[in-house]
Structures are given as C-alpha cells and as structure tokens.
Amino acid sequence: MLKATLRSFLAHKGRLLLSALAVLLSVAFVAGSLIFSDTVSQTFDRLFASTAADVTVSPKEDLDEAVPSGRTATLPAALAERVRRVDGVAAARAEVDVDGLTVVDEENEPVGPTTGAPTLGTAWNPNERSPVELTSGHTPHGDGQALLDSETADRKHVAIGDTLTVVAPPGSFKVRVVGIATFTTTNPGAALVFLDPRTAQTKLLDSSRAATSISVDAADGVSDEQLKQRVTAALGAHTYDFRTADEQAESDVEQLGGFLDVIKYVMVGFAGVAVLVGVFLIVNTFSMLIAQRTRELGLLRALGADRRQVRRSVLTEALLLGLVGSTLGLAAGVGLAAGLIELMGLLGMNIDAGEMVIGWVTPVTAYVVGLGVTFVAAYLPARRAAGVSPMAALSDAEVAGVGRPLRVRAVAGVVVGAAGAAALMGCVAAERTSAAASLLGLGVVLTLIATVIAGPLLVRPVIRVLGAAFPALFGSIGRMSQRNALRNPRRTGATAAALMVGLALVGGMSVASASMTRSFDQQIDKSLGADFVIQNTNFLPFPKEVTDKVRGTEGAGLVVRGRFTPVGVRLPDGDRVETTAAGYDPRLDEVANITYVQGDSATALAFGRLAMDRDFARDHDVRVGGTVPVEFPGGRTAELTVGALTDQDSAEGFGTQGGLYFGLATLERYAPGGQDSALYVNAAPGTSDDDLRGHLERTLDPYPQVQVRDLADYKQLVHDQIAVLLYLVYALLGLAIIIAVLGVVNTLALSVVERTREIGLLRAIGLARRQLRRMIRLESVVIAVFGAVLGLALGLVWGVCTHEVLALQGMTALAIPWTTIVAVVIGSAVVGVVAALLPALRASRMNVLAAIAHE
After folding, report:
1. CB-hemisphere CA count at 13 Å for 125?
2. Whole-number pLDDT of residue 402
3. Nearest Cα to 124, choosing from 104, 141, 144?
4. Dihedral of CA 316/318/321/323: which sign?
5. Residue 227: φ, ψ to 5°
6. Residue among 577, 570, 563 nearest 640 (CA)
7. Rg of the chain's alpha carbons, rounded to an integer?
8. Which one, 253, 282, 335, 576, has least CB within 10 Å?
9. φ and ψ at residue 452, rounded to 5 degrees
C-alpha cells in the first residue's frame, strides 16, 4: 500500500501542484510573520539592553498617555549630584530626551521622518553606552550648534554648516549643524538632534534645572539590583520610578510592542485567510481525484485492501502534499521576512537581514499549519474513498456524491444557520457594545459555516437564475456550460466557497466603512461650528507660539484652544477609569455644537467643574452636582464637580471613553505644561473664509507640520483614515482571490480530465475548438459569479449588523456602497474568465480519438 500510495502521489503531482500552492501561501505568511517579528524583537532587545544605564531614575507616571498632551515629564537635574554621592555609584548624568519635535531646513522642508517615527531632541552626553558616535565635525557648544544623525542627514541632504529650525515645546529656535553622529546599533527610524546639555535643558525643557531622567552607572562589584535599592533608599521609593538596565530595556520593548503587534496581526490575518480558502481548494482537489480514481480504489479493495488501508493511503498523500507545501512555504516565509526587513529599511528602520532570527518555534509552527491544513481538508474525501466498493472496479461509478441526497447538509446548514441568525439578531438587539460585538463575532462565524455547508443546496436554484440568459446568448454552448456547473453541486459549491469567503469579508467591511464615513460626515456637519481647525499633521500638540501667531493673524476673530490630558477617574460605583480628557476655552459654544442633556457650557467649563457623556454617567451612577476624584499626571488630584451631561453622539472631539472635558483654567491648574492640540478659528466680521485661509496659511508657513483645515478638509482626513482599514481588507481580498483562482483553475483542470471522453465525443460530432473554450469559460464565469453573489449577500448581512454595533458608539448612519458591490460582481466574472484560460486551452488541444478512447 505504501508503494501504491507513493506511485499515486507522483502520478498526480501535476494535479496537486495548485493545492500545494495554497499550502505554500498559508505557511509562508505564518513563517514570515514569526521570523520578522522575532528578528525585530531581538534587534531591539539588543539595542535597548546595550544602551540602557545600569539604573535609570525617571519621573513617576501613573497614567498612560493614549493621546499626546505635549507635556514633558521632568525631574530636578540636581538629583544627579545627590545620586553621585550614593555608595556604589560610579557616575550619574542628567539626561534630556524630548520627542515630538519638528525640524525644518532653510527651505522650510521637514527634516524628520514621514513614516510616523519620532524626531527626538537630546542632550549630547557621550559614553560607552551611547547608540551613536561622532563621525565628522565637532561636538555642539552653546545655543546655536547641534549634531544630526547621519541617516537623517543623508536622507534629507543636510551637511555640516547648514542651518535648521527646531520647533520644540517651549518654542522654535535655529541651530547650525556642526557635526554628524552615526548609529552604532539599529536606528529605529527616528531623527535625532543633539544639543549641548545646558542648551537642551533651556531650549527643550524651558528650564536649566530640569531633566527627563537620571542615568546611573554602577561601580565595579555592584549589581544593578543592589544599585537600584541604594538609589531608591536615597531618593525615596514613592517619588520617582527606578529601573535596572533589564527593566528599562523591557519597558522600551513594551512601548515598541504595539507597532510590532500590528505587523504581526496583519501577517497572521493574511495567513488565516490563506488557510481558510486553501482548505476549500484542497477538499475539492482530493474529492475530484478520488472520484476519478474510483476504479483504481475499487481494484485495491478487490485485491484485499481494507477500508482503513485505503483511508490511510489517501491521508498519506495529503500529508506528503502538506510536507512539500510546508517546506516550500517555510522557504518562502524566509524570503517574505527578508522583504519586510528591506521594506522597513526603506521606511528608515535599518535591520540587518544577516541577523535574521529563525527560532525552533517557526519551523514547528510552519509544519503544524501545513500538515494540519492538508490533513483536515483531506479527511472527509479520505473517508469517502474508504467507502468505495470492490464492485466499483467493474463499473464507471463515481464516489463524488453526484447522486447522493443533500439532506444531511440541509439539516446541518439550517441548524447552524439558525444559530448564526439568532446571534446576529441578538447583536442587533443588544444595548451594550461589548455584548453586541461578541454576538456579531459568533454570528459571523456560524453564518459563514452554515453557508459553506448549505452552499451545494443553493447551486441549482441560483445558477439557473445566473445562467438563465446563457442559452439565448450563446445557444447550445451556453446551455451545456450551465448544465456542467449544475452537474455536481458539491464540487461547484466548494469551488465557489473559496471566492465567497474573501468577498463576504470585503462586502461586510465595505458596508461598515461606508457607514462610518457617512456617520462621521454627519457628526462633523452637526457638531463642528468653526470656520477652520488648526491641527498638527500627526495630531501631536504644537508650541504656544503657534497659538499666539494664529491669534495675531489678520482676519482671525475668535480662537478657541483645545488640549488633552490623561486622567484617572474614581466613580461613585467604585470603578476607576483611565481615559483622556479635553480642556477648552470658555467660548466653546461658538465653534462647536454640543447637545447638553443637563447643564450648559458655562457650567461645564467653569473652574473646578467637568462635563461627561450621559451614558457614561448613567452606567457609573454619576449625577450633576456630584463630585468625582480625578487624578492628573504628576500625582496631582482634584475633586471636580459634575457641571453638565452631554449627548456624546453630537459632541465633536469627545470620542474618548466618558467624553470628559473641562475648562482650560482647570486643566492648567492641575496639569500644567501641556500644549494645544487644536485651535478652532472663526473669521472676524468682514473677512471671508477664503481670505482668512490665505492669511492663516501664510502665518503657519514656518510650521509645515501644522495644517489649516475647513469642514471639507476635516471630512477628507477622516475618510483617509478609514481608507487605511479598507486597503488592508482589499489586500486580504486580493490574497483570497489569488487562492480562489487557483481553486477554479484546479477544479476546471481536473474536470477536463474527468470529462475527457465526453469532450472527445463533443469534438467528434462537430464542436469547434473555439466553442469548447467558450463553454469552459462560461462554466468558470457562472461558478465565480455564484461565489460572488453568496459572498456579497453574506457580507451585506454582516455589514448591516456591524453598523448596529457602530450605532451604539454614535455612528448611526447606514450606507451601502453599491458601486463597490457592482464592481466586485463584474470583477468576479473577469476572475472566472482568467481562471478558465489554461484549462480551456488544454481541453481544446486534446486529440479527438485519444479522448474518445480514454478510460
């Protein structure tokens, strides 16, 4: 049996090639994501471990800053002198590191990265742990000198002697580049500007007595943990954060973890789609191969092979297929990881591909995925093969299930579908977002499974409708193509299912994104009352001088500032919620349309008061007039009175949990040092919007990171952000279509082999080559469109239910992107034509007599 199995596998290797490609793609994305993330993680582990001081003292920050506030946490620089006197300390340095800077050249062009990586300003304190070294020029001295990292200098063509403008939190200032510093380790993509230590304090922190951290080096014979304990005892355990080198490196890696997780999850998403769609392809391939080998399997049974041996033989072929696909997929995964590393290099993150990490988990996972997919997909066909009767060797019987009733599928599909429909209806009826989202996920999974199970039941009624015009348009050729698609509902359903999965995903996400876009448009129209909004390109805060210049701009009337801060709120029901709160100037009503359920802007923005969303207040037993303890950065706390409750659905800019906001006077009292994140500007009487825009753009010309946006610009900004999600979905769709095309090609190719004698007879009675090719193309088109119809119908249901979840967050508008849906159906027909090219060509080249004599 083993010899027979190996010979059978080698005899059908051409037919199994396309299934192996599906396994290859699945494994490649899994292996590539693991290799890439492991390589990047290890690279940064080495970077942070080699650059972290033995002990780092930093300001105590109890609140996570989800939205940048522009506040730089500091501690007294004089602490360095106190630390130096601690027993076991070899050296202590006051460090200055400030991110969120903007640096422009003499032509007012940004010098920093445009990929989201930060531009950092730091004090030049060279030591053996520094990640950079001076490679040309000299160290900076005094206010007007700076060093620039070599990669930024090369990328932006900055040379020694050039003048740069640095826009820092306290204000902007000019520096002359006097030297170039080169990274000795991996550059995470940031741009670095190095200043004289005293200059860094005054220009970046606006204080010659402040620092952002203290770096401490241990004396010989003193461990990091011992040094930490001694420094903590000297300064007080509750005053600052103390971390050893390992703890600091771990903290830095955690901050980077979000970026790495996004890439990893995207890759795993691609792998998941490839696995899911690949399963349909492999099931179909093995089902058809077994159908074509009915007589062969019958002979094996007649010669003495029992059911278990036949089943084991088919599963062995599947495992051989999985082994080949996994091996090739692992190699492709290495190449994919190398490509991602090169892509990161183009984006400014230089990782050495020669240090690629391939841990034992990667090949084990690759083979588990590859072998698991093929084994699971081939199990049902293998069981079917084991049921072949020895008498089948004496007939032309098939075991593909052409004539078998679909009652079991019908019952299973109805049961699973009913459960899925119930979950989706529960999602629509749910009043809490978490419950609705959970029911949505369950409903999506169950309805997808139900559609796959019941797909063959829908083949005959749907394809009769889709192909109804074929006889009239293409005559007998159209009628035969339609009947070929109807001949084996199981095969047609499985082939179309591969395409259905991708299109259901894109249909659901398209409805969700279109609804989000329309909802945001409606909310912006309803809530934003300012003529213009001034914001940073990357939503980072900007220095006070920008606000001052906007206020002094010709034609500018009312200017209302918006600022953010992290807060911790202890609520009457005992919960403690960490969120982001906003602060606004008193005349907020004139630039934003806010619906108050209780109170008004005057009570909301009064000193010592705050406003919150009514639903949040109801959930936590908050009442107007009650007080809530609020924790601010730096350990400050305040008892604030609830002055107003709002309808958050209509409150522009209050998308964070709780919709908390208060007056800027309150914010500046308890969280000083922050920066404005937005300015809402109205034109002065007698000034047109166009004139004011021109004046504002000229005023902000020295600040290329700051943008002037009107209502339409603001909407476009939201559209662009939502489009990023759609691009990912379309990429997933592209992968699903690639594998689905392989499935259609495989099905048609095996179908041509299966119908060799039939094709020969058709050619003998006068069917032309061109007519034969058209018949196969039409069959492919109707299968592809059938998959598209099922997928889009399912996707529309998912999309509408997703909209109900979004509606609980205030996004109530429903939009169906009919243009996208029509385009997808047309595209599916094109996919069908493309997938049929090779099988149709092969069929048309058959020798007629050899085809008629085919067994």
Report:
1. 23
2. 43
3. 141
4. negative
5. -65, -40
6. 570
7. 33
8. 576
9. -65, -45
Tokens 């029911």 sit at which residue? 439
Token pair listed for 90: 């070899």
Q: Contact at 8 Å (CB) between 600 and 645?
A: no
Backbone angles phi, psi at 408, to 5 degrees: -65, -45
How far apart CA 374 and CA 319 sit, in angstroms, is 6
Beta-ladder partners of 562: 584, 678
pTM (2 decimals)?
0.76
Distance CA 481, CA 474 (A): 10
Q: Is residue 189 within 8 Å of 349, Cβ to Cβ?
A: yes
d(CA 755, CA 751): 6
Determine how many CB atoms are found less than 10 A away from the CB of residue 832.
25
Nearest alpha carbon to residue 794 among 484, 345, 446, 415: 446
Whole-angstrom Cα distance, residue 800 to residue 422?
15
For residue 108, what is the enclosing H or E element?
none
Q: How far apart are CA 288 and CA 743, in angstroms?
A: 12
Q: Cβ-count burial of 853 within 10 angstroms (0-12 exposed, 13-18 middle, 19+ buried)?
A: exposed
- Whole-number percent of the chain with pLDDT over 90: 29
Cβ distance 579 to 569 under 8 Å?
yes
The CA distance from 210 to 324, in Å, is 62
DSSP summary character for residue 648: G
Cα gap 553→2, rounded to integer Å: 85
Tell me the torsion sign for CA atoms 273, 274, 280, 281.
positive
Cα–Cα distance measured from residue 159 to residue 343, given in angstroms and rounded to the nearest whole number = 26
pLDDT (tens digit per residue) in 294-325: 667 777 777 777 778 877 887 888 888 889 88
Q: Which amino acid is at 64?
A: D
The separation between the first and the last C-alpha atoms of the chain, rounded to the nearest angstrom, is 23
What is the distance between the alpha carbons of residues 855 and 722, in angstroms, rounded to a whole number?
56
Alpha carbon distance 800, 394 (integer Å): 54
Q: Give me the residues paired with residue 95 across strands.
A: 213
Torsion of CA 780, 781, 783, 786, to 10 degrees: 170
Q: Which residues have a Cβ under 8 Å from the Cβ of 445 and sit 6 or more positions away?
A: 420
Torsion of CA 535, 539, 545, 549, to 10 degrees: -10
Q: How far apart are CA 804 and CA 508, in angstroms?
A: 12
Percent of the chain with pLDDT over 70: 91
Cα torsion angle, 299, 302, 304, 306, sign: positive
Pick from 388, 395, 391: nearest CA to 307: 388
* Dihedral sign computed on CA atoms, order 662, 664, 669, 674: positive
CA 519 from chain centre, in angstroms, equals 22
* Residue indicated by tokens 């021109």: 694
| Coil/strand/helix, residue 387 | coil
How far apart are the C-alpha atoms of 449 and 435, rounded to whole Å?
Answer: 21
**How many other C-beta atoms lie within 10 A of the C-beta of residue 50?**
15
More confident residue, 531 or 394: 531
Distance CA 713, CA 133 (A): 43
Instruction: Give the C-alpha separation, 638 to 631, whole Å.
Output: 7
In the block, residue with structure tokens 């997780």: 261
Cα separation of 742 and 754, whole Å?
18
Q: The tokens of 176 are what?
A: 């002359």
Provide the pLDDT confidence category of residue 400 given band limits of 50, 70 and 90: very low
- Non-local CB neighbours of 236 within 8 Å, separated by 6+ positions: none
Instruction: Give CA separation, 370 vs 11, 28, 376, 537, in Å.
Output: 22, 10, 10, 44
**Within a 10 A sphere around the Cβ of 346, how many other Cβ atoms?**
8
Q: How far apart are CA 33 and CA 35, in angstroms?
A: 6
Helices 245-292 and 711-754: crossing angle in degrees, nearest 10, is 40
